[in-house]
Design brief:
The complex is a heterodimer of chains A (about 200) and B (about 150). Chain A is α/β, with parallel strands linked by helices. Chain A has a single domain (about 1-195), classed as Arginase, Chain A. In chain A, about 30% of the residues lie in helices and about 20% in strands. By secondary structure, chain B is mainly beta. The chains are: A alpha/beta (about 200), B mainly beta (about 150).
Chain lengths: ~200, ~150
């Protein structure tokens, strides 16, 4: 069965000009780390019970906890769908001003950025196990990016690009109708996270 | 055991030799680690030059390091309080491989203080910097011998 896990209120909101805690350039970095472990525990328990976790939230940083939880069971690939790439890291972005972890969530999930949000018990996801589905926003990515044409065609292309990773996590940042259904028919989908895109 | 015991092997008193790579300066110092807060923290005092080196008080750095395990973050929180410059530095620490990595991200750079080669009577330490995602560059090294 699908188990809905709502974490819309889990991430901190900082109205006004945010300030980073000492030692991090993410104004929500400490809170995101703490919540990542909480989400991971719930996702892992859900998968362990044989259910499909569907994690909803309005902050793309929930991706870290989703992958951490799924990764406790087996090597997990990532299909990152819609929205922006969320791939800001020190090699492609000026972090002089504090930012939100959400804008770096895919970079952080693949181990790029500061220790606070990249050092986990185990690798969250390897570059070779990532496919991005969505519009090219100009950010150079170290993994394949495919646009959405016919949903079934897009899904088949994702499957071709991830032939051997035993488990897949689907992160949807926005809505791409049809792709999810075909991917679930592979039987390899272990979880889904959906963000509204309101906080990127 | 303090937290996950990460810093326990360093508890004791050490004579240090510090090498500032950008200036070429080398100096002897002292570093004293001790358990604190009923085993919930490690406090250490960093002294440069060593107490045995006669210099005016104003020329001696005596800094306090506070290391506290944060079970919610599963990281060590670290602060360094400098009496020479009055600066406070905050970092997060974890073991990565055989090294203890302390890290802070500030402006366009990530700074790491790294303990390595930790043996019963010796260890090494270094300060690394990466600017705008570039390669790591070592700016300071230290060797320590237990006294």
């Amino acid at each position: 069965m699908d188990v809905m896990i709502g974490v819309a209120d889990a991430m901190p909101r900082r109205p006004g000009a945010p300030e980073s805690p000492p030692g991090t350039r993410f104004h929500d970095g400490v809170a995101v780390r703490e919540h990542t472990f909480r989400i991971a525990d719930t996702v892992s328990a859900t998968i362990g019970a044989g259910d499909l976790p569907v994690v909803t939230g309005d902050d793309s940083a929930i991706l870290l906890g989703c992958l951490a939880g799924a990764g406790r069971h087996e090597r997990t690939g990532l299909v990152h769908i819609g929205g922006g790439a969320d791939f800001r890291h020190p090699g492609n972005h000026d972090f002089t001003e504090p930012g939100a972890a959400a804008d770096s969530s895919l970079a952080l999930a693949t181990g790029r950025g500061e220790l606070l949000l990249t050092d986990w018990p185990g690798t969250l996801v390897a570059d070779r196990d990532v496919v991005r589905v969505g519009d090219d926003d100009g950010t150079p990515l170290p993994f394949p990016t495919i646009g959405v044409t016919v949903p079934a065609t897009t899904a088949r292309r994702v499957i071709e690009l991830l032939p051997d990773v035993p488990a897949l996590w689907i992160h949807v940042n926005g809505d791409v109708p049809g792709v999810l259904t075909v991917l679930r028919e592979t039987g390899r989908v272990v979880g889904i996270s959906i963000t509204t895109g309101s906080r990127s | 055991m303090n937290g996950d015991g990460l810093f326990d092997p360093l508890i004791g008193t050490w004579r240090t030799r510090i090498h500032y790579l950008t200036s070429g300066r080398e100096v002897d110092g002292d570093w004293e680690f001790g358990p604190a807060l009923d085993g919930r923290a490690v406090l250490d005092v960093w002294r440069v030059p060593s107490a045995t080196v006669p210099v005016p008080d104003a020329d001696r750095e005596v800094g306090l390091c506070v290391r506290i395990w944060d079970p919610r973050l599963r990281l060590w929180r670290f602060t360094f309080h400098s009496t020479a410059t009055t600066t406070v530095i905050s970092m997060y620490a974890r073991a990565i491989g055989s090294e203890i990595i302390l890290e802070r991200a500030v402006a366009d750079r990530i700074e790491r203080w790294v303990f390595s080669s930790i043996l019963p009577d010796t260890f090494a330490w270094r300060s690394d910097v990466s600017v705008r995602g570039g390669e790591w560059s070592t700016v300071q090294t230290l060797t320590a011998r237990r006294t």
